[in-house]
Structure formats: C-alpha cells, structure tokens
C-alpha cells in the first residue's frame, strides 16, 4: 500500500465528463487537476480529489453490471503493486468483484467491504 499521507480519491461515475467538470469547477470551487481523455477527468478542492469517470472510462467499465443504481461509487485507493495487493488480500480471504481492468490510466480491481461497499484498488500506468 502507499503511505497514509497520500490522498485517497472518490470516484463518481458520470454520463458526461465535460458537463461534470463544468459543474464542479463552476459551481463548487473545484479546480481541474487533469483531463487526459474525454472519458475521464479529476477535480480537486482542498484535500478532496473527485475522479469523474464517463461511460467509456476503465473506471466505469470495471463497475459490476448489477451496480447500475446509486451507490456504485467507491473509495479509490492508489497502490504501488496491484498484483501484490490482490495476492495479499486474497490470502486474507477478502472478496473481490470482477477481475482486473486495464485502461490508459492504469489497472484496477474492486474489493468489497463487509457491508458490500466497493473499494477500488488502482495502480497508475506511470507515476
């Protein structure tokens, strides 16, 4: 895992990335952090980073089909070595939802907490 002083992000699945960026930056005081592809952008306000994932993003594609209603958002935790984390957590008997999904920004997998909430473990393509 990364150090505890690294920001954790919250991912929101959105229908229109550009409209979401305008909403957060124009109305809520966020600044655009990055927008590497039309399918994804992230905005920051103070210590909060919101990852805005459109339908074509790897983040949206990694969401299980049965999670298409509100509540499919999840905590996004950056890890240095996704495969090692998966091995460590599977050894501990923790449940995953789906397989690793790769996209231009990196690789990810979804873990569930005891209540079934989704936690995304994400390894960036490059740091």
UniProtKB/TrEMBL annotation:
Q: Which domain of life is it from?
A: Bacteria
User: From which residue to which does the signal peptide run?
Assistant: none
Boundaries of every VOC domain copy? 6-124
- Where is the stretch described as Disordered? 53-72
The UniProt entry, under InterPro entries, shows: Anthracycline_SecMetBiosynth, Glyas_Bleomycin-R_OHBP_Dase, Glyas_Fos-R_dOase_dom, VOC_core
PANTHER family in UniProt: GB|AAF24581.1, GLYOXALASE-RELATED
Identify this protein by name.
VOC family protein
Q: Which organism is it from?
A: Actinomadura rudentiformis
């Amino acid at each position: 895992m990364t150090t505890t002083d690294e920001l954790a992000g919250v991912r929101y699945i959105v229908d229109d990335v550009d409209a979401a960026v305008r909403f957060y930056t124009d109305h809520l005081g966020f600044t655009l952090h990055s927008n590497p592809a039309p399918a994804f952008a992230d905005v920051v306000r103070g210590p909060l980073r919101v990852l805005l994932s459109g339908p074509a993003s790897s983040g949206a594609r990694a969401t299980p089909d049965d999670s298409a209603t509100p509540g499919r958002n999840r905590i996004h935790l950056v890890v240095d070595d996704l495969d090692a984390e998966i091995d460590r957590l599977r050894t501990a008997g923790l449940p995953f939802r789906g397989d690793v999904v790769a996209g231009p920004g990196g690789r990810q997998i979804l873990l569930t907490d005891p209540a079934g909430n989704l936690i995304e473990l994400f390894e960036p393509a490059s740091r």
